[in-house]
């Protein structure tokens, strides 16, 4: 057989041995929509866009840390934000709602690579937790007379979560990441779920960036007394941009 007709063996990339790490900082352009109630104030619908949040943003930090070794992965994610907004409600007398929240979301998951993975496509079954701490302040001001009622409440809860994480390597530069989970199940919240999808690019073997979209939904309620009713049924969503260092 001539050399030009000889078969060429296919080399399958080996799974990297030892631990590899990825530290990521990102900006999440969040919008917030849902129903919120604090103490004895009526539940109010909140629909705050990213521009409103940005104008009322007092501070934020968002980052994650990923570690992989063989078929295993560990992921930690932290979000802290201090935001607020004022909105005129489209109801009788057009009352004005002032709402602010300090929000901390910390997630940790462990994942194991499923046998459906291929050299360019990894899928992990994941399980872990999501911790949320929320301080909500609401003031409802009448549209007719200068009277206002307000309330403030701080709640924290821990939810178990299960889901999957996936990475598709288009080529040596481009990649697609996806993650989804669901949890709560009445342990902390009634329901919490999130999903994100991103497209990324390796500028160097150590530095990558990505653009995507992320959605996080939480349905939580706590009633510890006649004046301690806390309702939080909210979706946080929006595009995000990240930069990561791989080592």
Task: Write a structural description.
- This protein is mainly beta and 247 residues long.
- It has one domain (34-246): Lipocalin (Beta Barrel).
- Helix content is 2%, strand content 68%.
- It has one helix at residues 50-55, and strands at residues 20-28, 31-38, 44-48, 59-69, 72-88, 96-113, 121-141, 148-169, 174-184, 191-202, 207-223, 229-246.
- The protein has a ten-stranded antiparallel barrel with strand order 1-4-5-6-7-8-9-10-11-12.
- The longest helix is centred in the first third of the chain and has 6 residues, at 50-55.
- The protein is elongated, with a radius of gyration of 23 Å.
Number of domains: 1
Inertia-based shape:
elongated
CATH superfamily: OMPT-like
Helix-residue proportion: under 10%
Report low-confidence residues grouped into runs of 5 or more.
1-15
* CATH fold-level topology: Lipocalin
User: What's the CATH class label?
Assistant: Mainly Beta
What is the distance, rounded to the nearest whole angstrom, between the alpha carbons of the first and last residues? 45 Å
Number of strands: 12
What structural class do the secondary elements suggest?
Answer: mainly beta
CATH architecture: Beta Barrel
Q: Give the spatial strand order of the biggest sheet.
A: 1-4-5-6-7-8-9-10-11-12
Strand content: over 45%
Task: Please summarize the sheet with the most strands.
Answer: 10 strands, antiparallel, barrel
